[in-house]
Amino acid sequence: MASNLVPFDPTKVMVIRDVVPKTVTTFSMPFSRYGNFKVGGRGTVVRLVSGALAVFSPVALTDEVKQRLAEMGEVKYITALDIEHHIYLGPWAAAFPTAKVLGPEGLPEKRASQKNEDVPFAHVFTKSPTVTTIDAEFDSEFSYEYVYAHKNKEIVFLHRPTKTLIQADLIFNYPATEQYSKTDQSPTAGILTKIFGALTNTAGNGQKRLIWYGISSGDRTGFSNSMKRINQWDFDRIIGCHGDVVDTNGKGIFQKIMEWHLSESGNA
Asked: Which residues form a coiled coil (predicted)?
């Protein structure tokens, strides 16, 4: 992977944080989209009551990450949250060969065309039929929605016990302060980063417009239906892959950004 996209030595810059002690841990690191936008990257691990670990959007599998995982439990689920978040999927699947790998339709074919590592997918989310069960252990704590109308084929998860929404590219929360906190780079430096950040923070209406006119424009009805189902969930925290974690009032932020999709007819 080109050094202008991900750090050469992730150990030096990765931030490991217990968002919910003994239950939810994030692994945050710098990531530069196309080498120009400082978007940051983040993986999330959830420890189930059983002790099993569910990994979402895995990041670099460093020695520190392996040590933290060993302290938490056994990796049993590894999920690529959309067709873009799979860079480290191969190493994780190889390190934990008994884990069930989840991902969206199109990802196995994309990885094959790119000659990535061969990963055995246990569950591939499709528009129809959609995945309605993973197994009893996983389903006892997670709800999930496949947003097939998202351009990146997004899978969104709710960890019900901690009221945590876990997603990749559905909602951004810029700037990526935590993800660049162990570097000598400003998370807001660069004109392209500033422009992109203005469109993808949660303070104004830029992200609402970006999703309405861009991300969901191919199938706005399908996207809206997914947002309405997610809106029925009880969550307060949002963990995304890009930008800072929304530690509280996540439901309100979600409703603000998705306001037009949550209404009956939309409002441009």
From this structure: none
Contacts of residue 177, Cβ cutoff 8 Å, sequence gap at least 6: 187, 244
Please, what is the angle between helix 250-257 and helix 220-231, to 10°? 160
Give the DSSP H or E segment for 38: strand 37-38
d(CA 3, CA 152): 24
The answer to whether the beta carbons of residues 178 and 17 sit under 8 Å apart is: yes
Report in angstroms the alpha-carbon separations of 103 from 42, 75, 89, 222.
Answer: 17, 16, 10, 19
CA atoms within 13 A on the CB side of 213: 8
Q: Which CATH architecture describes the domain 10-262?
A: 4-Layer Sandwich (3.60)
Q: What is the pLDDT along the chain (268 residues), one digit of tens a residue?
A: 344 445 568 999 999 999 999 999 999 999 887 667 899 999 999 999 999 999 999 999 999 999 999 999 999 999 999 999 999 999 999 999 999 999 999 999 999 999 999 999 999 999 999 899 999 999 999 999 999 999 999 999 999 999 999 999 999 999 999 999 999 999 999 998 999 889 899 999 999 999 999 999 999 999 999 999 999 999 999 999 999 999 999 999 999 999 999 995 644 4
Task: Output the CA–CA distances (angstroms, integers) from residue 17 to 110, 184, 253, in the order listed.
Answer: 31, 20, 22
Q: Name the one residue in this structure whose structure tokens are 């990994």.
A: 55
